[in-house]
Amino acid sequence: TGDALLASKFPTRESTTKRFLRADNPGSYSFKGINRVNGDFEGDSASTDDLEERAGGVGTLEKLNTLKAFKSISRGVAKATNSFSKKISRALPIKSKLQVWSNNGKSVSFVRKELGMDGLDSARLTLAKNFKFYDDYVTSQLPLWANKQLTPREVASKLSFRGLSGAVRSNPNFKYYDEYLVQQALVWAKKDADVDKILVRLGLNLVPAAERSQAVNNKYYDEFVAGLLRTWKEKDVPVTEVMTKLKLDQLTGEALLPHPNYKYYKNYVKNNLKAWTTKGDSLDDVAVRLGLDNLQGKRLEAHPNFVFLEKYWTKRGKYQENGWLKQGMTSYDMWKKLQVHRVRASVRRQSATYEAYEKYVNLIDDHIIRLHKRGFQDDQLPRLISKDATADELREKTIIWIKMKRPEWYVKFSLGLDGLGENALKEAHNFQFYKYYIDSTNAVKHTI
């Protein structure tokens, strides 16, 4: 009976051994003859019957030994499966691994270690052969962190920062922190978030106002408020309401000017002053917009917005001219607006009307020449030329060019003559003014 038991057990072991010796070849791997029942492995019914017949009536002992054999098989299958999984994992492309790691929420430090970059200093990290994959992985995490609304402190922790001192800017991971917070600043601005809440979120509420500009996170507060100002300007939010939003409405005098938010408010008001000037708003209209209506005497002068009312009064001419320039108003448009042609030629150049026209011509000239000096090519410069310009206006403008000693290239450009060959130049309608400029300039040179 013992021999029968041994004879029945050894063939089973041999068959099992052969199966798992083929584990390295998944294509030849077979589970034939093995069925899983309730999580355990059993032999097929035909094999079991043979065992009972050869056991000579000791079925209970045989079943016990058979169960042990199949438990051994189960352990072997588990081992082989783990080995197989490891081989498959090792064989996965790195990009597929990145996806698996992302799905499993693996940390940045884990991925860095798995890519063989753990322990590399800043200089060597970006030069590592797997840095591209690391970069892709961390970048892919940014929107996930944004969806979870992670705080700057939490993101800094995920990137393994040891504090947020100025030195952190040289950390290779800082670019991810920067990208995350720049985008967050835009989101906060779009939501019209409370400025004090964002200060707290950025940890700037704990930084003295005088030192805030040096803080790493101050950049993102700047980005946030700049976004707010754009949104408020688009929605035409009243100046007085902006003052409240920036927490300045309860401050006056010495407490107002040094406040970190005052520079943003000042910028917002100045941009509005320019817009109001371009529209031609009266001083009374501006006083109302600045919240100064019904104020007089010392109360008016003590109001923090009084300085902007004064600026509007003294600078409105300059604001207006710059506004016209941005709108593309030509010198001929100004000529017509001021009705210079109605002033008698004999007294024209001594009149206030002509002085305003000349000032605008010089404003255009200075602007375009300044752009040219900065490297802008002729085809990139604004062409503030009117096809309707009269000979009278062009002659006066040419006289101003001569007086201001404008360069030849600019006169040619402003008359629409640049790029013309010699014959085409002489046949052009505006050639007469260019020739007048050349002749007058040469005459002055000969005189000198």
Automatic annotation (TrEMBL):
Protein's name according to its UniProt entry: RxLR effector protein
Natural source organism: Phytophthora nicotianae P1569
